[in-house]
Amino acid sequence: MYLCFSQLGRWSGSSRIVEISRLEATVRPEINPHLINGQIMYRPFLKHLETSLAQRFALTKRPIPQGLECNISERGRHPATIQSWCYECSELRKARYTYIDAGTSAQIFNSVIYPNYQYELPLLGIDFLSFGAVKNLIVMDFQPLFQDQAYKEKYITPLKALHDKYPDLAQNLEMKFYDANQYFSQYLLFAKTDPDTVKTRVLDAFKDYLQLYWQMLDAATPDNRQTSLDRVAKAQHDYDQYSAERDPASGLFGSYFGHEWSERFLFEFLFEDAVPLAVSARKS
To answer: What is the reported pTM?
Structure first.
């Protein structure tokens, strides 16, 4: 059962404010001030996601494997920190997000929202990356679990209006590591942009995509038939396997935090249902 504004409205005055604050406190632990150097470009995005989650869902913390919740790197010219959060509720199997802060060298915000298996909705995928003052890459999409026309008409077509609203953020860039026809929609926002646009247009688009996703989740009818649960579970697991094998961020994690830690982070947290290729080969 999620809490939305209409439900919170049943409380009056200060009681309503206290309840919202209490909910936000459960999902927005303060970032350790010793881990952040102040150059937090995507912090407004992180805060909006956390507030939105807190106001809509009865969240509980989803365990993050020991040693993976945060890390500090002193490699290179700029110290880098990474911190992650993960939650679950009756509607969401996993809502994870991660922030990497390497000062002016790099700012990265990544999140994937996995619905519970009774919902066949796409995953909500977010990837915002800034390197230096001029390299800013934004990726935002409803990532389809299935490619049949009926599925895309139901879950992807509603994105068209938002995609058309932000043509400057839909630049049809080449994908170097992924197949654009697998786990990406035709209404993907994928763009190179500048810091001012990030603070305005990208933030607006992020809020709009998130709002539409919640609306679609609200409207979805859970399907608890075992065949449907198994079908969605397999599709989500396949997504994790596909993504873990191709995610270019693993090299970035390794450069900051070492290969061993980055492999654990990739397979034990980001894409926990994936199996490392070496392990898969031994099993076969």
So the answer is: 0.83
Report which residue type is found at 158: P
Determine if residue 67 is left, alpha or beta; phi over 0 gives left, psi from -120 to 50 gives alpha, anything else beta: left
State the Cα angle at 151 between 148 and 152, rounded to 5°.
85
State how far the Cα of 65 lies from the Cα of 256, in Å rounded to an integer.
Answer: 19
- What is the distance, to the nearest Å, from the Cα of residue 276 to the centroid of all Cα atoms in its chain? 21
For residue 231, count other CB atoms closer than 10 A to its CB. Answer: 16
Q: What is the pLDDT of residue 166?
A: 96
The two three-digit tokens of residue 256, written as one number: 């900051």
* Domain harbouring 209, CATH code: 3.40.1500.20
Cβ proximity of 75 and 103 under 8 Å: no
49, 93, 112, 138, 192 from 131: Cα distances, Å: 22, 32, 21, 12, 11
Q: How many domains does the chain have?
A: 1
* Mean pLDDT of the chain, nearest integer: 83
pLDDT band at residue 125, thresholds of 50, 70 and 90?
very high
